[in-house]
Design brief:
The chain is mainly α. The chain contains 1 helix and no strands. The mean pLDDT is about 80.
């Protein structure tokens, strides 16, 4: 009573290891799905922010340029 042979202990550990591995793989797959979905959303937001930043920088550059060319000619904004 209360004692376990080393072989029985190791076999029990191996059995638990197999179950834990299956559970761990399931958790990894779930986490991976979560990360992929959030990464897609993050890149969408990042893309929109970078486009806005590019537009704002272009407007600052445009606002700082001296007027040139023929009188009455409109300047164009290159993006």
């Amino acid at each position: 009573g209360g004692s376990v042979e080393i072989e029985e202990f190791l076999m029990g550990c191996l059995r638990l290891r197999g179950q834990a591995t299956a559970i761990d793989v399931g958790k990894i797959l779930q986490d991976q799905d979560f990360l992929i979905k959030n990464q897609d959303r993050f890149f969408g937001v990042l893309d929109a922010e970078l486009r806005d930043l590019k537009m704002e920088l272009a407007m600052l550059k445009f606002a700082g340029e001296p007027l040139s060319g023929e009188p009455g000619m409109a300047r164009t904004l290159d993006l």
